[in-house]
Structure formats: structure tokens, C-alpha cells
Amino acid sequence: MLRLIFVYLPLTTALLTAGVFAPANAATISNDRVFAYAEGKYPNLFPSTAADLQFEQFTYRYYPTTANYLAVDTANVIFRLGPDTGNKLTSIAPVAAYADAIIAWEALTINTYSSLATPLLDYIAADQSVTTTSSSTLNTRIILGADYYSTTPEIITANYGFEGYMGVPNLGGTGSSAQTAAYAGNVSYENIDLSLQATATAKAYYAASGSQGFLTTYGVSATAADTIPVVFSHPIWPPSVTPTAFQVTMNTGVVVTPLVASFYQTQNTTRGKQLF
Length: 276
Description:
The chain contains six helices and 14 strands. By secondary structure, the protein is an alpha+beta fold.
């Protein structure tokens, strides 16, 4: 049996003055983020969302109800022009001087989306609401928070993993009977600190899967099946994870198709939270 492991190893002129906020080193803040911050933080000066306009080296927005202009030039310096600047173009400060303030403001206003995002947000919410233990629920058409570890898609490792850990007879739950079944199946059974036992799940005690648990999770039966953890360099499209997508060459030269290929979510006190 093949098991996939994919480890995942967030204005007033007085206020817009250099030195009010400490500069953020190496911060990259786009013009759109500068404008969004100004509009969200100081709506009395920059009401609603204006369109980006271009004049010489300036990208700017004009707010007709207040007769204010807000601009960023090609050197990433913020400028203002309006009634309280005497209608004179006034240099405020480099964008980097407000990076910390912009990032902090964004952190408080995250998850604010237009109506165009509603179908996607509904799809994500529906996907996350599924809490069954079936592995098929992880094979939905969505990837959340994935990392890249190479410029070329590849299998980083695919080593022989846990011998006989899938479908261990009589293994389930915790306690002395589970420990006996684990030892009978040559499976490690951890000793958990007393302070953690009240909230520890079975996966905190052992990494194996009992016969009934395997059937419930993967929809097929197995007895003492082996696993091969596979680590990929790139995100894997979940619906593509099927047994027939993999071939395993045995030391005899025989090529076999795994019984199961699946992501597997584990969350316990001994191994942390990973996506398998």
C-alpha cells in the first residue's frame, strides 16, 4: 500500500509624515496597497476606491468629493496634493516608511472580499465543513497553503516506510487492549504524559491503522499492509491522487499498483500536524 506524505515543513498631513512609523526593511508594498491603506484608514480624505491614473512618473488617484490627489512615483515616494497642502504637490515619505503600518492595517482587515469572491469562498467553506474520516474528502479540487521546494516538479523521496502498519488486526482506540494489538502487530505504542492523556487521540499513541479503521478511511480492506511515504517538491492536484497513478517496482522486478494512494491528515502530540 502506498501512502503519500506531503509535508508542509498571513491622512492627514501630520499623520502621513516620515518617522511616524518605523521603516520596514526589505518590505515590498505595491501602489495598490498604499492606496487601499489610505482609503481605508483615512476615508475623510480619500473616500471610496478611485481608479488608478498615470501622469509622467506618478501613479495617482483623484478623489473628487474632497479634491485630493494621492500619488506614488517611480521611486516609491508618496505624494499628496489637495486643499490642506495649499494645492501644492507635497512629498510625504518613501513607501517603505509606512510598510509596517500598512501591513498591520491589512492584518486587521483581512478576509474582506468583493462579491466576486463569494462562489470561491462558499466552495472553500463547504470543503472545510466536511469532517468525516474518509480519505476521499482530502481529494477535492482545491489546494490550500502549499509550498514549492524545487524549480522542477519531482519526487524528492519515496522510501519504504512502515511495514505492516496498515490494517493491524484488532487495533483501535487506546488502552491496554489497543497496546496488546499494537505489540502483536509489531507496531510501536507510545507512552503519553499523564497531563496529555485526557485530550490525546489514538494517533498520539500509534501511527498504525487498525483493520476497521483502514476500511472506514480508505474504503478497502487490508491486513498488515506496508506504506511508502512519498514527498513531492510541488503541490499535487488532489483529484489526481489515485492508486493507478503510481507504480512500485519490487526487488524481484515485479511492478505492482498500490492498493491505496491518498493524502492522510494527522494531528497528534507526537508528530505534530502534517498532511500525508
